[in-house]
């Protein structure tokens, strides 16, 4: 049975960013500390290290209390604008920027990104680089024509959104309108990057789950919409499908190339496994023959 759609007022009143972090991202116990985290970090690294997304400014829509999605982006963009509807999320992010004693600990995930970049000894430097790159933490409501009103932001080079739009959008039509509206926030030719989980269930607390559009039967409709929209605007999206234990990509050749490399590596691994089994069988056959 699907969870009924949760009004934004519930998120505003009850969403607890610390519970959210502990439930999903805390090292060793978060439910997303594994396949999803690896998927997101690897693909964001592949995307932003490809050299095909460039510019000075990136807007992160629905940053939440998280920083993982920006760790690779700060290697490309010197100006990062973080944003979220919820004051408690914005405050939690500001705690990390200020290095408050009770800030959320992202050190394990920072280390994972440094390993991907070949800088495993420099997680502290990575954190400082991201802190310097985040220039603003703004209130944002994606359901408004200008999500940042009353502010009017200069057009950005790239817009990023990870695990955000499922909460405010009650149906696929609303989702489509929000994504199309993002194009007004960009310079001509700017890129929109969306990463989502096919079954992500947002939470206010571990004991009080709330609805997310992506865990509904409309998931396939969203994927189709994103593919269609990518023909009109520079939209890049990566979809993590839990049931398939794999990801599906659309209209991002450089991310697709990364996916192809992974598939080729898995194919080679299976081929070598078959060869090993064949070799063992042959050794067994020879040994049995010699014993006779």
Explain what this protein looks like in three dimensions.
By secondary structure, the chain is an alpha/beta fold. The protein has two domains: 8-251, Rossmann fold; 252-292. 42% of the residues lie in helices and 18% in strands. The protein has helices at residues 8-14, 17-24, 35-48, 87-98, 107-117, 123-133, 172-182, 219-229, 253-291; strands spanning 57-61, 79-84, 134-139, 156-162, 186-197, 203-205, 208-209, 235-241, 246-250. Strands 3-2-1-4-5-8-9 form a seven-stranded mixed β-sheet, sandwiched between helices. A two-stranded antiparallel sheet has the order 6-7. The radius of gyration is 21 Å and the shape is globular. The protein starts with 7 loop residues before the first helix and ends with a helix. Mean pLDDT is 79; it is low at 201-210 and 241-258. GO terms for molecular function: N-methyltransferase activity; S-adenosylmethionine-dependent methyltransferase activity. InterPro entries: NNMT_TEMT_trans, SAM-dependent_MTases_sf, TEX12. Belongs to the class I-like SAM-binding methyltransferase superfamily. NNMT/PNMT/TEMT family.
How would you describe the shape?
Answer: globular
Order of helices and strands: HHHEEHHHEEHEEEHEEH
List the domain count as a whole number: 2
Q: Write down the CATH class of the largest domain.
A: Alpha Beta
Provide the structure class. Answer: alpha/beta
Q: How many helical elements?
A: 9
Helix-residue proportion: 40-55%
The CATH superfamily of the largest domain is identified as Vaccinia Virus protein VP39
Distance between the termini: 63 Å
Keywords: Methyltransferase, S-adenosyl-L-methionine, Transferase
GO molecular function: N-methyltransferase activity; S-adenosylmethionine-dependent methyltransferase activity
InterPro entries: NNMT_TEMT_trans, SAM-dependent_MTases_sf, TEX12
Family: Belongs to the class I-like SAM-binding methyltransferase superfamily. NNMT/PNMT/TEMT family.
């Amino acid at each position: 049975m699907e969870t009924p759609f949760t009004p934004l007022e519930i998120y505003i009143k009850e969403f607890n960013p610390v519970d959210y972090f502990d439930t999903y991202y805390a090292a060793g116990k978060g439910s997303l500390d594994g396949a999803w985290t690896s998927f997101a970090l690897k693909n964001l690294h592949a995307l932003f290290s490809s050299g095909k997304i460039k510019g000075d400014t990136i807007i992160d829509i629905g940053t939440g209390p998280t920083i993982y999605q920006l760790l690779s982006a700060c290697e490309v963009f010197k100006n990062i604008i973080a944003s979220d509807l919820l004051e408690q999320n914005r405050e939690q992010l500001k705690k990390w920027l200020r290095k408050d004693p009770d800030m959320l600990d992202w050190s394990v995930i920072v280390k994972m990104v440094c390993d991907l970049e070949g800088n495993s000894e420099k997680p502290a430097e990575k954190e400082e680089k991201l802190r310097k790159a985040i220039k603003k933490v703004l209130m944002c409501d994606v359901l408004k024509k200008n999500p940042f009103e009353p502010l009017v932001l200069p057009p950005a080079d790239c817009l990023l959104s990870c695990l955000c739009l499922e909460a405010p959008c009650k149906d696929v039509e609303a989702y489509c309108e929000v994504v199309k509206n993002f194009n007004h926030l960009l310079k001509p030719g700017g890129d929109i990057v969306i990463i989502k989980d096919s079954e992500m269930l947002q939470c206010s607390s571990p004991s009080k789950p709330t609805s997310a559009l992506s865990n509904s039967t409309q998931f396939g409709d969203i994927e189709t919409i994103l593919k269609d929209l990518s023909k009109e605007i520079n939209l890049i999206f990566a979809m993590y499908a839990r049931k398939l234990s794999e990801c599906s990509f659309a209209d991002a050749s450089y991310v697709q190339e990364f996916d192809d490399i992974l598939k080729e590596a898995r194919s080679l691994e299976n081929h070598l496994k078959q060869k090993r089994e064949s070799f063992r069988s042959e050794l067994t056959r020879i040994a049995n023959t010699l014993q006779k």
